[in-house]
Amino acid sequence: MRPSTAGDALSPPHRRPTPLDPNDPRPDPRIMTQIEQARRGLVSPEMKFVARREGLRPELVRDEVARGRMVIPANREHLKLGLQPMGIGLKAACKINANIGNSAVTSDIGNELEKLRSAVDLGADTVMDLSTGGEIDDIRRAVIAASPVPIGTVPIYQAIQQVKKPEDITEEGLLGVVEHQARQGVDYMTIHAGILREFVPLTAHRITGIVSRGGSLMAQWMMAHGRENPFYNRFDDLCDIMREYDVTFSLGDSLRPGCLADASDEAQFAELKAMGELTRRAKQRGCQVMVEGPGHVPMDQIAMNMEKQAFECDEAPFYVLGPLVTDIAPGYDHITSAIGAAMAGWYGASMLCYVTPKEHLGLPEVEDVRQGVIAYKIAAHAADVARHREGARDRDDELSRARYSFDWNRQFELSLDPQTARRMHDETLPQEAFKSAAFCSMCGPKFCSMRISEDIRRHAREAAGLVVLEPEPAGAAG
């Protein structure tokens, strides 16, 4: 991979070939995106890998990718560095994303790598580097090299760092940043192309206005220049860049609601309709696309939001932030958002972007990342169970059997967070002998409900005459 510099990021993209001729009988798979290969009936190595991970037929994965209902974010450059491909879509398990990144206040590559390791070890399916402070390039390069899971970014965060004020950003500069990050190996990018000039006034009545950082920057640029969104104007050029490296579009919801009162309003749905148009354009040009969704939605509106996105965007995978179902829990927003996330996954979201306890309060640290990932692993798993995905409940049932038989070590092994489960048990019963005890410290040895249940079962079997007698020794009869 050719080394990149900040100067490269602001240079205009070079001329690219147009999308492959669908009538070409012998295309080269090495220059085809996943969706292009799928549409030609080819099963790529990445599709086979995803099929094995998901327990699906490779042909089903191919058909879902061809339809645009599943994406495999796998930049060709990141594949060279050891990326393990994964699929995002309704036929796959519900995925979760963990956000990491520095800020203008703090910057430390080692700390970001520790966040990455923690997120991946706990089960994050993708990680977004949302760095906005210093050393953005170095952090991104290190994160991509160290990550076995897909990495996402928000290119406008780097574009804004390279100018004095938002209105100084140029169209060529934006495209240059996208190409620069694609060349580094970024697998998917949040592109704020759906916010149009005519939509900005629709946010005037909102309590929280435009809460998307990228969306607010784009709105400021359009107001300053009196021109349309450059990402929208140059969308075909963007597609050429994304297609060259097979970077997946994650169309950013610039006008997502930032509180319950702003949810499901005219601004949000106007942008969603525009993102549907862009989804179709990107797929026509051989690009993979997913669509980002709202962050604050009352519980009674979640199903409607999922259904509306599927309709407007041709069932492109929906990637939602939360959603948070109440606004009164600062410090506990990983919990209120996980409630909404489980419902969103149940009703059709394909990936859930985690929220940490620090949401709305500060930059998450390693422990915040851990708590966010665990909350969202629970939400995603609950969604898979609710969707009756084959095999989704197997682990639950196995843990329940271990719990009933007081197999404490097996319970720990099956837990989403074994370390925490073991620690909490051992706080009151630390001795190894208690790992086989038929009680915990809550009920104690005399009043454990499961032990009592087993006694009741034994008495019921005896009363029904179902007691199995031990066989008599040989020769005892007669």
UniProtKB/TrEMBL annotation:
Q: What InterPro entries does the record tag this protein with? A: ThiC, ThiC/Bza_core_dom, ThiC/BzaA/B
Cofactor stoichiometry and binding remark: Binds 1 [4Fe-4S] cluster per subunit. The cluster is coordinated with 3 cysteines and an exchangeable S-adenosyl-L-methionine.
Record GO terms (molecular function):
4 iron, 4 sulfur cluster binding; phosphomethylpyrimidine synthase activity; zinc ion binding
A GO BP term here is: thiamine biosynthetic process
Gene Ontology cellular component list: cytosol
Q: Where does [4Fe-4S] cluster bind?
A: C440, C443, C448
Sequence positions that bind Zn(2+): H296, H360
Q: Key word Chloroplast present in the record?
A: no
EC class of the enzyme, as a word: lyase
Q: In which pathway does it act?
A: Cofactor biosynthesis; thiamine diphosphate biosynthesis
Q: Which reaction does it catalyse?
A: 5-amino-1-(5-phospho-beta-D-ribosyl)imidazole + S-adenosyl-L-methionine = 4-amino-2-methyl-5-(phosphooxymethyl)pyrimidine + CO + 5'-deoxyadenosine + formate + L-methionine + 3 H(+)
Per UniProt, the keywords (alphabetical) are: 4Fe-4S, Iron, Iron-sulfur, Lyase, Metal-binding, S-adenosyl-L-methionine, Thiamine biosynthesis, Zinc
Q: What is its EC number?
A: 4.1.99.17
State whether keyword DNA-binding applies: no
A Pfam match: ThiC_Rad_SAM
Q: Where is this region: Disordered?
A: 1-29
Q: Where does substrate bind?
A: N99, M128, Y157, H192, S212, R213, G214, D253, S254, L255, R256, E292, Y319
**What cofactor is needed?**
[4Fe-4S] cluster
Family matches, as NCBIfam families: PRK09284.1 (NF006763), PRK13352.1 (NF009895), thiC (TIGR00190)
Role of this protein: Catalyzes the synthesis of the hydroxymethylpyrimidine phosphate (HMP-P) moiety of thiamine from aminoimidazole ribotide (AIR) in a radical S-adenosyl-L-methionine (SAM)-dependent reaction.
Q: Which family does it belong to?
A: Belongs to the ThiC family.
- What is the official name of this protein in its record? Phosphomethylpyrimidine synthase
Q: Which organism is it from?
A: Tautonia plasticadhaerens
